[in-house]
Amino acid sequence: MAWTKRQILLTLLMVITGSINSLSTKWADTIKSVDRYGKEKLFNHPFFQACGMFIGELTCLLAFKILYKYYSRRADGTEDVNELTKGNRNFNPLILFIPAMCDMTATSIMYIGLNLTYVSSFQMFRGSVIVFVGLLSTAFLQRVLTKKQWSGIVLIIIGLALVGAADFIYKDTNSSHGTNDVITGDMLIIIAQIIQAVQMVVEEKFVSGQDIPPLQAVGWEGFFGFSILALLQIPFYFIRAGPPVTENSGDRLEDVIDAFVQMGHSGKLTTAILGTIISIAFFNFAGISVTKELSATTRMVLDSVRTIFVWIFSIAFFHQDFHWLNLVGFVVLLSGMCIYNGITGYPLLLKIKSCICSRRYGTVDEDIVVNRNAQDVEQQ
Question: If 87 and its partner were Cys, which of 213, 230, 312, 319 is the partner (CB 3.0–4.6 Å)?
Answer without folding.
Answer: 213
